[in-house]
Design a protein that fits this description.
Blueprint lengths: L4 H25 L2 H13 L10 H14 L1
Helix pairs in contact: 1-3
Length: about 70
């Protein structure tokens, strides 16, 4: 089985995308504002009757949102 230039380009693009996502995830986790958001949600979620939204899902949505910008 031989790889075409398109296959190789897609493979490198996918690796670059994954590296970029990992960088954005690390940046998000090191952002003090993100910590404030997490504390706010933990403290006031039930008081404000906010829906149960997993922190992993929130993190994934924030990272993917940055991707579109």
């Amino acid at each position: 089985m031989t790889m075409t230039e398109e296959d190789i380009s897609t493979e490198f693009s996918s690796k670059d995308d994954q590296i970029e996502k990992n960088y954005r995830r690390l940046s998000l986790l090191n952002d003090p504002n993100y910590g404030i958001i997490l504390c706010f949600l933990e403290k006031f979620r039930s008081l404000l009757d906010l829906p149960n939204y997993s922190l992993q899902r929130l993190e994934d949505h924030l990272i993917n949102y940055q991707e579109r910008s």
